[in-house]
Amino acid sequence: MIQSSVEFFKNLPAKQCSECGEKIEEQHECYGSKCDHCLHVSVN
């Protein structure tokens, strides 16, 4: 059975930061691999 691309992306596990292991709060299919804290980005 072939899965639709929408279902594929909905079923991806949450990404984890490659540095600290925390869950990354963003789209799972993006290319980033570090959380805002490890990137030293201030979140407003």
TrEMBL record:
| Pfam families tied to this protein | YhfH (PF14149)
Matching entries from NCBIfam families are given as: YgiT_finger
Q: What is this protein called?
A: YhfH family protein
Species this chain originates from: Peribacillus cavernae
